[in-house]
Amino acid sequence: MKQRIIALIDCDSFFVSCERVDNPSLQDKPVCVMTSEGNKGIVVSRSKEAKALGVKMGAPYFQIKNSYPQMIYLPSRHQRYSEISNQVMSVIKTFSPDVEEVSIDEAYIDLTGLNKVHKTTYTDLIIKIRQTILDKTSIPVSIGLSSSKTLAKLASDKAKKTGGIFVIRPDKILETIGDENIEDICGIGLKSAKSLKFNGIFNVRDFLNQDNSQIKKLLGITGFNLKLELSGIATSVVDASPKAPQSIQDTKSFEDFTDNLEFLRSQTTYHVHNASKKLRLWNGFCSEIGIILRTKDFAVATLYSRLESATNAELQLRKQALTLLNRLYRPNSLYRSVGIELRQLTYNFETQQSLFENLKQNDDKLSRILDDLEQKFGKDIVKLGF
Question: Computed over its alpha carbons, how large is the radius of gyration of the chain?
Fold first, then answer.
C-alpha cells in the first residue's frame, strides 16, 4: 500500500479572523463573535487574546459581560464567512486538486508526490501553503502533516501551539505522540475513552501496543481502522468529491428575546427558504421536517413531521413548518432562536414512488425559478407571501 502524505489545514479562530479581514483595527484585541447581537448570544469564536483571558466557547454574554469589560463582542455574519471560506479553499486547491472540505474552516489535502512537483520538502511545502493563504486572504491557518487523516488532525491541533506548523513523521509516531491522552484522539468519544481506560489504555502508546483482537473487541472494526490510522496507515483517503448532506439545518439566534408568534413565523419562513434552497442545489428531496425552538433559558424543544411525499418545494415545506411551529409555540415563553431541520433526505430521484405518483413533480419548478432570480439579481429579490 502506497504511503500517503496528508495535511489538515485549519483556519485559526475563523469567524474572528474574518472580522479582522474587514476591520483590521481588531488585530491583537480580545474579540468574541456571538450568535447574535448584545446580551442575547453565546460565544461561537474567540481570538487568542480572548482565550488567554479565560473566555470559554459557548459562554452566554450575560454570564461573562461583567468579567471581561475589555472584550469586543460582534454578531456573526455567516454569509461573509462563507465568502471568505471559498477564497481560502480556492487557494488551497491551487496546490493540489485532491482537497476534501470537511467544514467551513477545515480541509484535508493530499500532498503525496507533490514534494517532487514543487521541488521542496513536504515541511517546506506546507509552510508555503500557509504563507500563501495568509498573503492572499489574510486568514491565518494551522497545518498538521502526516501520513493519515487521524494523525494530520492531531498534528493540526498541536500546530496551533507551535507557530502554525506541526509534522508527525510516520517513522517517529510514538516518539512524537505516544504520550497523547486517548481522549484527545479524533474518533474516540467520552464513552469509548472511558471503556479504554477501564482496560488500561490511557494514551496512544497503550492503544498501539494492544493486540488487534482486543481493539476490535473494545471498539469494533472502527477501532481497528483507527489503530491503522494512528500507525500511519491511511484507511480513509482524501475525497475531493462534494458530499450531499444527510440532513440540513438552518437556525439563528434573535437580537432580542421574543414571544411574538408572527415574528417567529417570519423567521421560520426565512430558514425554510435557506434550507430548501440548499436542498435544491443538491437536487435533493426531503421526507421529514422539524421545527427547533430555543428558549431564553437555553431549553430546546423540537417537533418533527413526516411528509406525504418527498419534496423540495418551498411552499410545501413552509406550510408544514408553520403548522409545527403553531403546535410547539407557548405564548408564555420567551424565545432566543427558531430553526428548522430537513431530514430523511434522498437525491437524484432515488425515492420509492407510489403507484400513481411521478416524483419529478415534487422537484418544484417555481422554487427553482426563484433560486435562479436570486442567483442573478441578489438575495431576497423576490419574497413569497403567506
Answer: 24
CA angle 63, 69, 75 (to 5 degrees): 70
Q: Determine the Cα–Cα distance for residues 318 and 74; give it in Å rounded to an integer.
A: 31
Rounded Cα distance, 31 and 74, in Å: 8
Residue tagged active-site, from 49, 101, 106, 374: 106
175 is catalytic: no
pTM above 0.85, yes or no: no
- Alpha carbon distance 164, 144 (integer Å): 8
344 burial type by CB count under 10 A (0-12 exposed, 13-18 middle, 19+ buried): middle
3-state secondary structure of 184: helix
- Tens digit of pLDDT for each residue in 149-164? 999 999 999 999 999 9
What are the distances in angstroms from CA 373 to CA 1, 176, 367?
50, 54, 10
| The 141-146 sheet, strands edge to edge | 99-103, 106-110, 6-11, 141-146, 165-167
Whole-number average pLDDT of the chain: 88
Bridge pairing between strands 6-11 and 106-110: antiparallel
375's CB contacts (< 8 A; 6+ apart) are none
Task: Output the nine-digit C-alpha cell for 166.
Answer: 506541526
Q: How many CB atoms lie within 10 A of CB 279?
A: 24
Q: What are the distances in angstroms from CA 363 to CA 241, 268, 280, 323, 330? A: 24, 21, 8, 22, 34
Model confidence at 349: pLDDT above 80: no
What are the backbone angles phi and psi of residue 92, rounded to the nearest 5°? -60, -40
- Model pLDDT, residue 360: 42
> How far from 360 is each of 346, 351, 357, CA to CA, in Å?
13, 10, 9
Taking CB atoms within 8 Å and a gap of at least 24, the contacts of 349-353 are: 349/285, 351/285, 351/287, 351/310
Q: Which helix (H) or strand (E) holds 72?
A: strand 72-75
